[in-house]
Amino acid sequence: MLIFEHSRSGRRARAQAPATHDELSGIPAHLLRQQPPRLPEVSEMQAVRHYTRLSQKNFSIDTQFYPLGSCTMKYNPRACNSLAMLPGLLGRHPLAPETHSQGFMSAMHELQEILKEVTGMSAVSLAPMAGAQGEFAGIAMIRAYHDARGDRQRTEVLVPDAAHGTNPATAVMCGYKAREIPTKSDGDVDMEALKAALGPQTAGIMLTNPSTLGVFERRIEEIARLVHEAGGLLYYDGANLNAILGRVRPGDMGFDVIHMNLHKTFSTPHGGGGPGAGPVGVSKRLQPFLPIPVVGTDGDQFHWLEEEQLPQSIGRLSAFAGNAGVLLRAYVYAKMLGGEGMQRVADYSTLNANYMLKKLMEAGFEAAYPERRATHEFIITLKREAKELGVNAMDFAKRLLDHGMHAPTTYFPLLVPECFLIEPTETEAKESLDAFIEAMITIREEARQDAEKVKGAPYSLPVRRLDDVKAARELDLRWQPEKTEA
Amino acid sequence: MPFIPHTEEETREMLDAIGADSIDELFDEIPHNLRCGDLATLGPGLWEQEISQLMQEKARSDGQPLCFIGAGAYDHHVPAAVWQLATRGEFYTAYTPYQAEASQGTLQLLYEYQSMMTELMAMEVSNASLYDGASALAEAVLMAVRAHRKSKSRRILLPRSLHPHYRATVHTLVKNQGIELVELAYDGSTGQIDQNDLEKYRNEDFAALVIPQPNFFGVLEDTDWLTGWSHDNGMLAIGVVNPLLMSILAPPGTWAETGVDIACGDGQPLGAPLSSGGPYFGFMCCTQKLVRQMPGRIIGRTVDLDGKQGFALTLQAREQHIRRSKATSNICTNQGLMVTAATIHMSLMGADGLARVARKCHRNLNLLKEKLTALGEIEPLFSGPAFHETVLRLPLEAKRVLRTLAAHNVLGGYDLSRHYPELGDNALLVCATENRSAQDMDKYRLKMEQVLASRRQGACATMAKFD
Amino acid sequence: MSNIPENLKYTKSHEWVKDEGDGTVSIGISDHAQELLGDLVFVELPEAGASLSAGSECAVVESVKAASDVYSPVDGDVVEVNEELADTPENINQAPYDAWIFKVKLSDPSQLDGLLDAQAYQTIAEDD
Q: Which of A80, A230, B352, B466 is most buried, most CB within 10 Å of its CB?
């Protein structure tokens, strides 16, 4: 039932709105609204009950194991939320003067310093509001760098075929052509293809390391050397930073620019799809191009660095200073971990992934890269099950929901058929991992007995499989009572 | 170990299962020289009590001043239920609803959000949000260029009276795609878009005209005329509006009867706290005709195998995970949690509640204006109609006045001299939302009076002793 | 195995071309292509009057999980587009060789000889 269907004309939750009608003055009549919008008219309790019930129809980290590969669905500490929502922080206006912002700015400055240290970069800007915006900032800086040198022949950005879709989309938003580089069967970049693709037209390469295939790119130093020799720069997609936090630093691998997904590695909430935060870190040569604003300090006081202080900046990415509330949560998390805690993130997320991979292989599931170590995530391919039992990765995913577990990432990366990209994260206990492995074995057994049963899953959720084709062909994107009633 | 459940025995057991001696061995594919040291500079982790104390100190040190700044972020009351519900773990810690069956809560809520936004804007289609108002406008510009198939023009008319940070953001996000932003002047006496300047572009080839309502100066534009003009000249019309005020002001879908083609803006006034500028959310609505050019997630209603109603992501072929380099945008996640809050906010307020808040803001601005202009030396700079924010001309530098007021914990507004040097040093943008009481405004007036008095005595800098 | 009529010409990118005998050709996507894409939900048509060069992207066919560009197999001007597909993209799934997407007036009729015949296309489709 939609909230609109609880609505009755004249019913109001008026406790939250001012009691009186104030007159309008000096506003021409033709600028005023004629018909009020049909927003719901419900009591406070009806609204609370409706949205509480809706929340109960979600899977979430707080309620279920959520091994969604490449998304780092780890526990989001409650202290990060409550401390970011202290009244003084929540009520600070973004344009408040620096005299009334030193507390907030000191936290932002320290977060910049922490991120510099864990990534091995020279400078950080917290401005990007999401991973994809961090990517944009990264490639825009590479472009600004080439442009500033008068090097305008560079028109291509290289992207491995296993990359996230955001990578090629970002390259295009920055005015570049995206050129795909194939991956070899062991999961590493095809070096011969890379060499052949590099040239004076190469602006840079976008790499995720560990890659989306769940393996560490072993020849990263050679790749860095080759790209730099060709005059290109290296961009690090921080989607999988959790795997190496405190173990390896992108700056030491030779990357010139990196974005981090704080909603993954630094445990800020995913919120049903955002808000995220995608700070960027850069090597010395890209420092002048950082997106604004950045927090600077003269030792005592903190101040904003804007276009006056960073005249070569690629510019502003949001109306104010990015997703400050998300940054505060990440700051609290980082402070609670400390240096040692960061390293434990990589250690235990890697331990959990390798344990699950091993156990699943022992149970007869096929690893996509059986000769490789898992990083914080790994891929199994269900192509044999699809062929022999007629039950594909989608069917396994939907049946897992009936077992009370969120499905791993399915059908990504596109290179591996019938794939499950599984990322348990460091915050899951061994018993959750064992339960998942049990569930996989049970589902496969069930598929042998009764494939149709598995193909019809899920059965225990608010809805069964939805008709996506109908959704796309007969677009119904909003409540329209006149249509429904007609 | 913070947030890691493993006991030593379990760790050992798991390593044995893997066949590794130590956790260190699990990193053996990484070249040795790349391993980093122990990050000692980051110091030890703090326990929860320590970090709580630290954060409370930081929050306290910023002083919770009395705020009369608007300029794109507005201090509105948010009902208690909004964030209590939005931070429920099932909303707070879920992800993008790829597994629709396990995400019906978020999906239905987003469908309700889309319904509410199309109602508020009087538009046909809404997406499930973008990052913020400024970046949403950049996406609207890109969308207009894609949609303007007739001419393939890559030029956009962008008024100078639009928020300067929005203009800067649009510039950053579109410049690498060869899109040209042409600045439209404002009328120095009304503060509205200068119609004479606009007429210079009659019959020229532009993809779109951007129309703010209200504009950065708080002045209301003649939206019917501007929308009609853009359509007469073969351009799309993009409205950038404050969503709260659309409960009272004519919504973009009704401008010039045809309505605009794309409406966007920042959703902050719908339940997001000021929070240093974010997270807020960007909203975007458009006509049915343009739906496939829209960036971002869109939710549709459909049925399941049993014919039961359900909700799912739809039109995904526009998006980066399918279209890759040909996607409408690189956007992936949006601002789901902020939209959750906004949807609950709109449900609790209803159309009537939003309109009451908007009226109260309007009344408060007029009160503040009366109180300040009564001091005799302060006057409104523009004659165009204002809603809940306006520009005042002070008898001395806004920067100095603000500094002195701030010393008394009053944030007196936004100094326009940096972004609008042509207005001189004395122009101040002020705002009074429903959260400012008559006493708050009296305090502001009193402090302002003292600043003006001390200037007459030639001692502005020593004002501090008045308190 | 998918249906590949003998009387049509094909491209590597899975378009079919029918010679209408009056200097124009009809163009659609093959049975094999519609099978790969699954249920189509949208077709973005070229604009009538547009002039195309062989190999240029001129339409998009979209299913729930994929979107695929349609490339013009020949040089020429678009003389007609199949507006019906805007409302009923499923026609392509049901009868791919009746559901033409657009018609082109050939600039150079000899280009037809350079296209694949049914047998050659069959080999390509089998490799997919």
A: A80
Which residue on chain B is closest to A478 by alpha carbon?
A: B115
**Which residues of chain C from 31 to 50 reach within 8 Å of chain B, CB to CB?**
41-42, 44, 47
Structural domain count, chain B:
2
Q: Which of B36, B105, B114 sits opposite A54 (nearest CB)?
A: B105
**Distance (Å, whole) CA B72 – CA A95:** 10
- In angstroms, the CA B269 to CA B353 distance is 13
Q: Do C64 and B317 touch (CB under 8 A)?
A: yes
- Give residue-wise pLDDT tens across range A386-436: 999 999 999 999 999 999 999 999 988 888 999 999 999 999 999 999 999
Q: Do C62 and B317 touch (CB under 8 A)?
A: yes
Q: What residues in A contact C39, CB-CB < 8 Å?
A: 469
One-letter amino acid identity for B53? Q
In this structure, are residues A472 and C41 in contact, taking their beta carbons and an 8 Å threshold? yes
Fold of A345-470: Aspartate Aminotransferase, domain 1 (3.90.1150)
Judged by DSSP in three states, A248 sits in: strand
Residue in A with minimal Cα distance to B311: A466
Per CB-CB distance under 8 Å, the chain A contacts of B250 are 30-34
Q: C100 CA to chain B: closest CA distance, Å?
A: 22
Tell me the CA end-to-end span of chain A in Å, nearest whole number: 18
Q: How confident is the model over B347-402, as pLDDT tens digits? A: 999 999 999 999 999 999 999 999 999 999 999 999 999 999 999 999 999 999 99
ipTM here: 0.97
Interchain proximity B15–A351, CB inside 8 Å: yes
Q: What is the CATH number of the domain that holds B298?
A: 3.40.640.10
Reading the block at residue A236, the tokens are 């690090």
pTM for this predicted structure: 0.96
CB contacts, 8 Å: C62 with chain B: 317
